[in-house]
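Bug: token stream looks shifted between consecutive jobs. Job 1:
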Amino acid sequence: MKSITRSLALVAAALAVVLPTAAQNLPEARILGMTDPEYDPMAGIQMGIAGLFERAIPGMARTAKLYVPEATHLGSYMVVLNVPGGVETAQWLSDSGWLALADQDKFLLYVLEPGETGQWGSPADEQAYFETAYNAIGQNAPEGRGIWYLPPESYYVVGYGPAGSLLQQLAMKDPTLVAASAFVDASDIDAAYLEQMATTYYATPDWNGTQVPASAVPMPVMIVAAEELSPDAGNVLAYWQDANHTAATGEDFAGGTIYTQQDGTLDYYVADSSRTAVAVLPNHDVSQDWVASTTMIYEEFLSNYTRYGGAVGGNTLGSRPDYAALGVKYKTMQIDGRLREYLVYVPEAVKAKAEPAPVVFSLHGMGMTMYAMFDYSRWWEIADQEGFILVVPTSLNTGNQTRWNVADDSTDLVFIDRLVETIKADYNVDATRLYLGGQSNGSMMTLAAGRNLPLSEKFAALGSTSGGGTSDNVAGSFVPYYLVWGEFDFWPWQLSEDYVGSTVNYWLQRNKAEGSTTAPTSEANNGRFVTSDWNDAPGQNVFRYTLTKGRGHSIIPAEMRLLWDWYELWQRDADGNVVYVGP
């Protein structure tokens, strides 16, 4: 958990921001569909809209509200919540402190609201609205994401009152979409629904080939109640304690109790360095101090977590990094009239040493940003352990998303080249140990950089996940490559399949490997990882390919460790040639 000192400061800041209701200037909601985003080429990945917007829910005469703070970047974290009944949405968002907190911490609000009467109907009456509005959050169409805003890979979910129980049921149905949640007087869910979740299975199995029910997936949960928990709410608490494998004994937390995940449990579902938790706060009436309660929910619980993943077997929950505490630096440069942005992390151990440090450059996938890649990959933890500098850049804001341009004449190739030279000039870098990799579209960009012969010669090794690309021109010097793929990825993982096969074949020819695409030199099965190696004539391993069982189109932290273990095998010598320096 974040430090008490920082927490108190944040509470004080939030309280200071929220003025008495009469003195507030409430934002006026605009129709999202009639809003044209304004993209400034020198604003980088900043969102093209700001303010409070009304969004039509597809297929019904209902709306939801979207709040985008000023200067919020694409893909920012998002809180999905429902307003209590009998309130005006904008007024309640202000009175409760959510607007001020979103402004302060730069996250999005996606707000479910009652119909024209201002009151929620029965759960049966509201179920279709909740399901449709919730499922449309990330819709890739004008009615959803893409033109006006870009939601993150997972949400924070906060439910209020009986209607909020519907929101909790949706979170139960697929916890992989939720980084953390809080439910305020919103946990009266009957035992029949809990039992149903035990037989509601994901479409793909885990890395052992085992079907996974929704009830087995961990999700950090805070349960808040104005009085003692009802029997149904008590069952819900027990449900989440089981899912999160929490210890039987809890600790004091915000006037209630928090139960933390036991060590040695939930491997791969939760990052090794992290722990999920379940908090319960009975006899806590949030209406007595809305702002303090909102701040506590977000700052003390929700924002401690992050989550990324596609298939259930490749979905990782983890602690969210504190950039200020780590000392992560935000940097920019200008290329072709566009602002280019990147993050640099230099571990304290690297700063304390006199010798130059290796550098890992990590590229995000399409629709993601440097912030998402930094948080989800957990590369910073390996940088701490191994002593290298981490650089995470952002691609261009294309007007409706982020995407690396992999064309041969791409300005992104210019950016990566300039970035490498800038890092070498600004930091104490071992220029013989520079490594490049990425996920999905970032993998495609890594492959494009590898095919660009002058740029490829700046790196000692390349390694990426879940993205392909090839060329008919296999000329160029030797650059070792490692490609990692998910069992349930967007494209089939089998080497006989054209997309991944052609990508592998390019590097086999480029690095003069023996054998063929479907005939590696060796194959090893290590738990959930099946790894194929191809050697050249002298017997040196020049290309590696790993299948990660259970994973969809995502990454898991263990794959970053695989990539680093590959990277550190290679170095460029005084003549600029790649040489093997591993064991």
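Job 2, same session, no restart:
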Amino acid sequence: MTTGNAPSLNLAIDRLRAGSPNHFVIHVIEAPYRAGYSLSDSLWDEALNQLWQSWQEFFSTRSVPMVPYVSAAATDVTPAPMAEIPVAAPAAPQSVRLMQTLGMNLWQWLFGGVIQTVLSQSLGMAMGQQQPLRVRLDIRDPDLIAVPWEIMQDQPGKPAIAIGQPILFSRTTSDVEPLPQLRKDQALNILLVLGQDTLPMGGEVTVGSDQTRLKLEQEAQALSQLFTSSTRFGNMAACQVDILVQPTPEELVQRLDTQRHNVFFYAGHGVPAPDGGLLFLRSDGAMNGTELAQVLTRNPVKLAVFNACWGAQPDQEGYQAIPRSSLAEVLLHHGVPAVLAMRDAIADQEALAFIQALAQALGERLPIDQAVAVARQQLLTLFRFNHQAWTLPVLYMHPEFDGELVQPLASHLTQIPVAGTQIGRPAPQATVRSVATARNWLIRGGLMRVGISEENDLVLHGEPGVSRKHAEIICRNSLDGNEWSYFLKDFSRYGTWIAGSSGWQKVHHQEVPLSPGAQLKFGATQNAVLEFVVEGGGIEN
């Protein structure tokens, strides 16, 4: 399923200047149907403000501006009741309750009243087109930028809005120039920049020393291997990585101007500043967001990724947020189609897990917003719902950008040639066998489609968590036609489970090698166990 033509619902939040300072207006600035253009107003009341402050105290490592509010008792406005976790709910850690309660309250605040109706109808239209709905949020009041809108959820048990289907969530701004015609790319061309590894006020390490440079070069090589190894199978897009370690600003500009990159990736230190933040490339060279924007926009960079703290946070003056001062906002306003930055400080382990999942998803030719959702799911799985790691990446996308980084393969190009018709050794015959009933399903033509709908080769009726188009088992041969390998590629909502030496491992929106004798579960972990069987072995993995 391609998402290039997915319907969009774009919302804008702005302070209601004529009213009290805690009143905001929510505009529908783009909807998939004519009657969807609406507006509503919301009160940022004392209860919500206290909840937001509690969330900051528990999770945030940097103080952020308070949203001005007035007590409900001091106004004639009675705030709408906010969503709460039922009193009878089982006891949960404070962090879980806080994450969930703020997420539900933010959802109710944004999607209350007529906006909820517009959302429901837009979702219905998207489902009718068998597409996700793109929801893009234009936050025009700088005091609301720091709010983690990505955690919004409709009710307990429902996924957060930024996790993925049926919504692809990103932030945006309507105050931008029209997007020029973008080049159609067939490969990922990444410029990987590793900046200064300690802040100027550090002093523990002498930046620029041979020891520091060696460490950075090793890290650069590891990241390069991560990107290229994540995109090496089958129909994955090719990936070329160009590395710069602690470049001067002049060296960075020259590399961007002389070579054609579609992804700019920066790993290093950064701090907020009024002109788009400050990136520390090296001890004697820094570059602010406004300067970087000039070179990114005159080159074919579609996506800028910043593994640096606070790239999605505005700068502050007297505890007040400065409008349009975050690195992500500045780059988007200058015309970069998509920017991914961090809302707060992120640990190395968290960042590397996210980057690996993102590289895999981008290599699979997913649109950027869908790839970010997949990578965010990986963070949530590894670090749990009550850890803020999955909430840290913030994606900004130009309102006209469809998120296409690498051109999707045409449907006729994704078909697998019939096994045995190519030159070389014929493919071994393989089947999928039910462990419980011993029933066998033959993999014909080197391809088996698995899912709940009838057009699949293996139809799994009554199995919880199985998607309509859940997964494929694919047989591919080497260039000389003499070596064959099988792979499992997951497309599903809930994933596929493969038994390994350390127990059942989840495969989600990934392609992995499949060895003879591998045991599989499609969907929920309690589902039937299936075994992948190759007649007489004879395949390479």
